[in-house]
Fold this protein.
Amino acid sequence: MKEMDRLVKVMERLRGPGGCPWDAAQTHKSMVKGLIEEAYELAEAIEKEDAEEMMEELGDVLLQVVFHSIIAAEAGAFTFSEVANFLADKLIYRHPHVFGEKRVDSADAVIVNWEALKRKENGKVNRDSLLSGIPKTLPALLYALKIQSAASRAGFDWDSALGVIDKIREETEELTEAAAGNAVERIADEIGDLMFSVVNLARMFKLDPEAALRRTNRKFQARFAEIEKAARKRGISVSEMPMDEKERVWQAAKSRD
């Protein structure tokens, strides 16, 4: 594809002699933080359903793939073409119901078959746990979702969301007891248990807990901005505004959500 060839050549020029000193200085490790940030910026654009912003952020994510591939090519490890071909081969292998003779009757069946094929791949056969291979560097909410989903596929799961809701009530009660005793370490444990259960509830409803929390964060920011706006109109800081007035502005902003 000429567009991809052009992009690769641009990045090779930036990395090459007479190119950009910053680009030339980057390594796989120095690029990791940017890769994670770009993925989150793309996720936000998707959630906002902003097509123009999505296009830009997809480009930034693609840049990361090309950048890492060129760094690897310089070291004689692999090229961008090899990355693309490896991915295409993997997609064909994991979709025998499209490229082969296997038949599936639902999206859930596709996932089951995908996971079975994935476990047979090189480097994954001898893993000692179904939870092996899930990166521990994932954000904690996403990591919890991943290990819960893996356990669920093995048949270790709640019968319904109602059981998870009961578990949340139980964890809340245990947290209340820990807080009453001011047992800091136990409080931390109980908060973790409560959050883990909330992630489980989101999973039961096929919701992404990271996306749900980001949505709540945006709502909080918008409502708090209204409080700041009201404080500026009065010529005072937010900290000087009486709590009952803050609550009134908050509730008014909430009613407009």
